[in-house]
């Protein structure tokens, strides 16, 4: 079985240089995929974070 490393909300916020509340808003709007843990906390796959970053970079470059 392959072990998957997931990122916390704070780690994603640091990576994308935004506030943690922005990450939570993006999840609520469906802009960023999240795994929801039983306690309601979110975790993120690094490839989903990088995909959002790439999409954002393309939008800014246009």
Question: What is the gist of this entry?
Answer:
With 62 residues, the chain is mainly alpha-helical. It has one domain (7-61): Multidrug-efflux Transporter Regulator, Chain: A, Domain 2, CATH 1.10.1660.10. It is built from 3 helices and 3 strands; from the N terminus they run E-H-H-E-E-H.
Order of helices and strands: EHHEEH
**Under CATH, the topology is which?**
Multidrug-efflux Transporter Regulator, Chain: A, Domain 2
Using the 3D structure, state the CATH architecture: Orthogonal Bundle
Distance from first to last alpha carbon: 41 Å
Contiguous low-pLDDT stretches (5 residues minimum) are: none
- Envelope shape: globular
Residues in β-strands, percent? 5-15%
How would you characterize the overall build of this protein?
With 62 residues, this protein is mostly helical. It has a single domain (7-61), classed as Orthogonal Bundle (Multidrug-efflux Transporter Regulator, Chain: A, Domain 2), CATH 1.10.1660. It is built from three helices and three strands. The protein has a three-stranded antiparallel sheet with strand order 1-3-2. Strand 2 (35-36) and strand 3 form a beta hairpin. The radius of gyration is 12 Å and the shape is globular. It starts with 6 loop residues before the first strand and ends with a helix.
Layout of secondary structure:
Elements: E1 7-8, H1 9-16, H2 20-29, E2 35-36, E3 42-44, H3 46-61
Features:
single chain; globular; 55% helix; Multidrug-efflux Transporter Regulator, Chain: A, Domain 2; mainly alpha; 3 strands; 62 residues; HTH_17; 3-stranded antiparallel β-sheet
